[in-house]
């Protein structure tokens, strides 16, 4: 039974779910922030109404007769803010006038009060509980109960003072600080949500890319898993169908070419039999040589097609052990092939196909140059580089790009009598690339030829 659209795993559904969960988590975090955020979560000093309340009391007390100011100040007291008025030259007025204050705090206080006062006062002071002035007797607060009070005092036109005391801080950070915090939290949350959402969307695509990459390593047996969102499943299904069609085409091509090569043996046999009736020995010799060459080409083609059609599975094997075994085999035959590299290193690939590749390269070096040195170097990214170096004449530079083409031969170094039809390097390149690597040929500056094989890291 087909599931409803909103229940099916799609990229759109994943995006909607991710955004919905992100919004829900955002609301929860905001609630926790306002519950446990302390002063960070409290409103700004302007929004808390502190400044407007203080400004209104200062205007009222300043406009009242001197005899009424003390009573008006006391009447304006609330549970959060206390007010007091001190006559000119009173002890408290002198203490406020002669105290030491921070110019920055004073300018910041005036910036807040300026919109609520008609003119700048003759003197203004702003300080906190840690200032010695806060210990003066007669201030309208209990020091033992309020240890984080804030004070603001203004000198009126007649020299008297009005003092405002916020018993505790009930407002949050200032506007700029709040903006910086909000911007920081918003940026962090956007980055976190973006990473989560992008991961939900990119993970199926990365999985698909890994699967497509594996097709190059196991083109005959690999098949993409059709899982994940619907769109990714459709892409994987399409690629699998295309892969099956390509593989079927290759099988048909290989089977056809192998059959043609096999069927050519019969007419070649008849040609050789009829050649026995040629009276001219020289012509007979030339004919038999051509027949032998064609026979060698057919045998090489059949071997190449069999390798191409083989279905060897990849396994884990000891790559240095394989190279050492090849070197030892040729040393036993009297060819001093040397190995240089680590003693052990696991690799996942086609063991026997790799052995044919390295053996072919070593044999070519022995046949056309000198016994080579086999060097294995693990790379930082987990891949391997294998170098097979000889001290022979090398290959002309303009031929380095052609040595991997089928039936390519170098006339000077590879003649008809040495054997081979020019499919060895082609087969080697096919095997290496089917395992995800690559092979190149280079002339060494000090002389000789270097076959450089790169094998990808194990996935």
TrEMBL record:
Subcellular location: Cell inner membrane
One Pfam match: HATPase_c
Record membrane topology: Multi-pass membrane protein
Record's keyword terms, sorted: ATP-binding, Cell inner membrane, Cell membrane, Kinase, Membrane, Nucleotide-binding, Phosphoprotein, Transferase, Transmembrane, Transmembrane helix, Two-component regulatory system
Catalytic activity: ATP + protein L-histidine = ADP + protein N-phospho-L-histidine
Transmembrane segments: 15-36, 179-197
Enzyme Commission number: 2.7.13.3
Domain spans labelled HAMP: 199-251
Enzyme class: transferase
Domain called Histidine kinase: residue spans: 259-459
Stated name of the protein: histidine kinase
Taxonomic lineage from the root: Bacteria, Pseudomonadati, Pseudomonadota, Alphaproteobacteria, Acetobacterales
């Amino acid at each position: 039974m087909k599931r409803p659209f909103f229940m099916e795993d799609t990229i759109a559904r994943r995006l909607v779910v991710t955004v919905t969960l992100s919004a829900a988590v955002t609301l929860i975090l905001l609630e926790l922030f306002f519950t446990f955020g302390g002063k960070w979560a409290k409103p700004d000093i302007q929004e808390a109404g502190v400044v407007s309340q203080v400004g209104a009391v200062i205007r009222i007390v300043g406009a009242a007769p001197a005899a009424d100011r003390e009573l008006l100040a006391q009447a304006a007291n609330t549970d959060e803010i206390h007010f007091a008025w001190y006559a000119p030259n009173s002890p408290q007025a002198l203490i406020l006038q002669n105290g030491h204050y921070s110019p920055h705090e004073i300018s910041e206080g005036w910036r807040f009060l300026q919109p609520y006062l008609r003119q700048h006062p003759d003197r203004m002071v702003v300080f906190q509980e840690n200032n010695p002035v806060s210990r003066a007797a007669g201030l309208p607060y209990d020091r033992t109960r309020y240890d984080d009070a804030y004070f603001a005092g203004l000198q009126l036109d007649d020299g008297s003072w009005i003092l405002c005391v916020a018993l505790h801080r009930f407002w949050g950070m200032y506007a700029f600080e709040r903006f910086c915090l909000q911007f920081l939290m918003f940026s962090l949350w956007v980055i976190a949500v973006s990473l989560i959402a992008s991961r939900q969307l990119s993970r199926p695509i990365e999985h698909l890319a890994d699967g497509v990459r594996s097709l190059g390593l196991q083109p005959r047996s690999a098949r993409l898993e059709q899982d994940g969102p619907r769109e990714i499943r459709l892409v994987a299904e399409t690629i699998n169908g295309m892969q099956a069609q390509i593989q079927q085409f290759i099988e048909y091509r290989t089977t056809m070419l192998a059959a043609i090569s096999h069927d050519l043996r019969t007419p070649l046999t008849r040609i050789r039999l009829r050649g026995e009736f040629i009276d001219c020995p020289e012509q007979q010799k030339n004919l038999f040589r051509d027949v032998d060459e064609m026979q060698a080409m057919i045998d090489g083609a059949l071997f190449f097609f069999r390798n191409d059609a083989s279905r060897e599975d990849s396994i884990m094997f000891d790559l240095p052990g394989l190279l050492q075994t090849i070197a030892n085999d040729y040393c036993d035959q009297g060819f001093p092939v040397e190995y240089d590299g680590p003693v052990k290193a696991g690799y996942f690939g086609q063991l026997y196909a790799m052995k044919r590749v390295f053996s072919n390269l070593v044999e070519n070096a022995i046949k056309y140059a000198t016994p080579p040195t086999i060097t294995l170097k693990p790379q930082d990214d987990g891949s391997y580089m294998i170098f097979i170096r000889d001290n022979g004449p090398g290959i002309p530079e303009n031929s380095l790009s052609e040595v991997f083409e089928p039936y390519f031969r170098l006339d000077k170094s590879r003649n008809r009598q040495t054997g081979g039809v020019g499919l060895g390097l082609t087969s080697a390149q096919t095997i290496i690339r089917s395992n995800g690597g690559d092979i190149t040929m280079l002339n060494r500056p000090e002389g000789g030829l270097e076959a450089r094989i790169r094998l990808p890291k194990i996935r």
